[in-house]
């Protein structure tokens, strides 16, 4: 069996969301995922990427923020596919890939190459519900600029 632990003083609250605004960040990790929910909007098995950002400096240095990007299948609703593809393409452009490379029709994405790239994340707060506590959501990813200072409200 396992070791006996005294967790009686554990903080179960978790992290409070950081204020809405824009923050300098780096891409900290990217994990390939697939949809699993048969009742979801996208077909089961649709590929995507979980992207973990790390705030890079300021009061919230090292805080993690997360976003998921889906790669809709070619036979998916064309307008929705364009929107999903656009979200991922804007992320790639924001972290420094060239527009000709990304939009050229044969872009080969290597998640390991994106890790460590700088950007600015525009963050909002998803309100608490009966089921979940309030949390941050990444509303946009932009290129890193000198104007991206902690807490700048771009919303």
General description of the model:
The chain is α+β, with helices and mostly antiparallel strands and 155 residues long. It has a single domain, classed as OB fold (Dihydrolipoamide Acetyltransferase, E2P) (Beta Barrel), CATH 2.40.50. The chain is 17% helix and 30% strand. Strands 3-2-1-4-5 form a 5-stranded antiparallel sheet. Strand 4 and strand 5 (135-142) form a beta hairpin. The radius of gyration is 18 Å and the shape is globular. The chain starts with 20 loop residues before the first strand and ends in a 13-residue tail after the last strand. The model has no long low-confidence stretch (mean pLDDT 91).
Quick summary:
It is built from 3 helices and 5 strands; from the N terminus they run βββαααββ.
Features:
155 residues; alpha+beta; OB fold (Dihydrolipoamide Acetyltransferase, E2P); 5 strands; 17% helix; globular
**Element pattern in H and E:** EEEHHHEE
Question: Approximately what portion of the residues adopt beta-strand conformation?
Answer: 25-35%
Count of alpha and pi helical runs: 3
Low-confidence stretches: none
**CATH third-level topology:** OB fold (Dihydrolipoamide Acetyltransferase, E2P)
Query: What overall form do the CA principal axes indicate?
Result: globular
Helix-and-strand structural type: alpha+beta
- Strands of the biggest beta sheet: in what spatial order? 3-2-1-4-5
Q: How much is the radius of gyration in Å?
A: 18 Å
CATH architecture: Beta Barrel
What is the share of helical residues?
Answer: 10-25%
Number of domains: 1
Q: Quote the average pLDDT.
A: 91
Would you count the extended β strands for me? 5
Report the end-to-end length measured between terminal Cα atoms.
51 Å
The biggest beta sheet, please? 5 strands, antiparallel
CATH class: Mainly Beta
